[in-house]
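Hello again, I could really use a second opinion on something today. My current little project is about how a certain protein chain folds up. You're getting the sequence in one-letter code plus the fold written as tokens. Here's the protein in full, and shout if anything looks odd to you:
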Amino acid sequence: MSVNYLIVHALQALAESITLLERHGLDGERFVELINDSIFPGPVYGGYGRAIAAGAYTPPGFTSRLGLKDLMLALNAAEDAKVPLPTGPVLREVFEAAVEQIGADLDWACVAEVTRGRAADDQAATRNTAKNTAKNTAKNTD
């Protein structure tokens, strides 16, 4: 349970890092190659990182539905032991969204698509806010 809880964090960290790089026009696959060849070698950052960078979640090694189940087991165990897990609720919400919106039977790395989608939504909202501000400014100066 604790190992999968750690992997859940790694998946979300990869999702956020790769999304950030992509928004700046950088190559997520190259980033994964770099970290896998240096500070984070191994199957979690290498394998899941490649899947996230490529957006390839089939065939699943472990589904998002099972990831959510294991995450909930860890959160319940922490609650029983009175161990605060501050990132737990955020991860639960991301995994619930992945299961419901992206695909319960896809590889659990698909949680990255929740992060990517929210970044796109935020970017669109920022553009719309800027357009509306410009329109309102133009109206007020007329």
